[in-house]
Amino acid sequence: MQLKGFTYVLIVLFAIIGTSGFSQERRLKKADAFYEAGEYFKSVDMYKRAMKKMTGRKEKTPIYFKIGNAYYIAGDYRKARTYLRRAAKYDPSNREAWVKEAEILRMSEKYDEALQVYREYIEINGSDSIVDLLIESVELTQKWLSEPTRFLVEDVRDFNTRDNDFTPSIVEKDGFDHIFFASNRKGVSGKKKSGITGERFNDIFVSKMNRQGDWSDPEMLDSLNSEYDEGAPHLTDGGAKMLFTSCQKEKGKPLGCQIYEITKTGTEWLNPERVDIVGDSISIGHPCVSPDGNRLYFSARMTGGFGGADIWYVEKEDGAWSKPKNLGPTVNTTNDELFPFVRADSTIYFSSDRLPSMGGLDLYEAKPDGKFRYFVENMKHPFSSPGNDFGIYYYSNAEKGYFTSDRLGSKGEDIYYFEKPPLKFDLEGFVKDADTQEIIDSAVVHLIGSDGTVFTDTSDIYEGYFSFNLKAHTDYVFVVNKPGYFNGKARFSTDTALFSKTFRYDIMLETYNKTFEIPNIEFEFGSKELTAMAKHSLDSLTQVLNDNPNIVVELAAHTDMIGSDENNMKLSKERAEAVRTYLISRGILPGRLTTVGYGESRPIEIEEDHPEYDWLKKGDVLSPEYVEKLTDEQQEVANQLNRRTELRVIAHDFVPSLD
């Protein structure tokens, strides 16, 4: 996918020849010459004129594709799609026509329609590995859009225009930064228009940040801009020098694109000079110097590359640049790799249209592995998008910077600011009564961190709300106290969180003023011996008692109606005592535990309907008289419900003895 702005294609343009007075055949040849030379905008009008004399579909079909492709490269996607669809209709085997139509849909975030185009191509032409990768790309795009990285991205509206503004580079000045970028906005120095896009040529501008943090109106750098294309500025030596790309002509003869260097003298940029890296016949661009000044990276299509535009570098040797070296196959592919940028840790950032991707040019990060190779990864959303994303600049000592994108919502090619905000964690919640759901005010919330920090808050008197600020990489426990209630407790951790998060809890406190059934307290049949499941449940009760060290509880055991009253009373007392003995063995002080056995004298009252037992209704008391009227199967259920162990708080001022 091509860009509408700076000529990045890095091709050597053919000499421009006049267009008037041609026959049909010569006009078509001339259109082809412009097209092959990359003068796509100029080729469109000539193709349209040539087609007026054509009558056969076979003759027109390849022209439909070339016009559609020319519009596609120029960024006029609406017209491009019209001609590409015609080309695909009349020549269904033209994969590129199908693919570019689908890419236009993808850039508009019409993913289902794009997938339909890809699949229609496969249905007609059979399986295709490239189209399979493009389908995977659409699916990846949808996934990455739903799972963005932590970075925040925003369009810099202070200086972006409806024209193209791109490839930012910063002179960092402690909050008073200067940003240099390319633009083809009104007022550029050149009057001619690009034969590739039909738009104005680009110049380099600068904007400066003031004390209020606002960017000034951009100013054009008159001393280095020409009537042709300038772009991709890169500042070095603290802003004293600038490298940039310029695509000039000499007496009507295109020279291709070359890298120039200019030095700032006082407040003026003076005497741009071409950097001697390659010969005149090769176009290069997108310069970037490593922070130590010893390497100059750039993009070029040269012999020894991997098929498209590759990233190359030269090294300082005795004050001059060495011969170009290719960055290698872990970074470069058969597609285009462009706009390199290097940080102090040797991580290289660049753009590529390799597959799979989110579409167009995506931004990539290449980390060195210490063995002269790189681990390359797509930077994903929000850096990459279904549009073109390129020309990134990272601040030297901060996780922030700028890049260019023509993603959906951009006015043209726009400059975007990005920043990785610090992780921010909060805890907030409400304290409520577990039974009534009513707000509990003035509860005390204690927060203890694994780093030793301790904080206390009191729930709001009207809303029961509490909140805390938290730290990253910390385990927390918080305890909620309110007189007349069991303490509430919860644990959580910020240790593995990748994104900022607010932890929300509704703390439901249980009142002392009721009797609780201890779940899953079962005994061997007719015995006082606790089952393994019962012991596990009592271990949980042990934790509750430890969390509430001042309460004294009554442990009450109940039996079913089977057997004599005397035996059931005796068995219930033994079972209550067995529960007490087990809790003491787990460290609970004996003075906090009293026991009572009720036998079958206190049958359970059903407090809520049981959907699984529709014959049980709220308010039913499972007395002997009630149970005797039930079926055998229902009696077994009723007896199970009557066999229970309950807990009741009888005091909450227990103080351990000092003896």
Mean pLDDT: 90
Helical residues, percent: 10-25%
Task: Calculate the terminal CA-CA distance, rounded to whole Å.
Answer: 84 Å
- Uncertain stretches: 6-22
Tally of helical runs: 11
Number of strands: 32
| Morphology call | elongated
User: Which class of secondary structure composition applies to the elements?
Assistant: alpha+beta
Rg on CA atoms, Å: 38 Å
Strand content: 25-35%
**Main sheet specs:** 5 strands, antiparallel
Fold and architecture overview:
The chain is α+β, with helices and mostly antiparallel strands and 659 residues long. It is 24% helix and 31% strand. The protein has eleven helices and 32 strands. Residues 6-22 have low confidence and may be disordered.
List keywords for this structure.
4-stranded antiparallel β-sheet; 659 residues; 24% helix; 5-stranded antiparallel β-sheet; single chain
Q: What is this entry, summarized?
A:
The protein is α+β, with helices and mostly antiparallel strands and 659 residues long. 24% of the residues lie in helices and 31% in strands. Helix 6 runs antiparallel to helix 7.
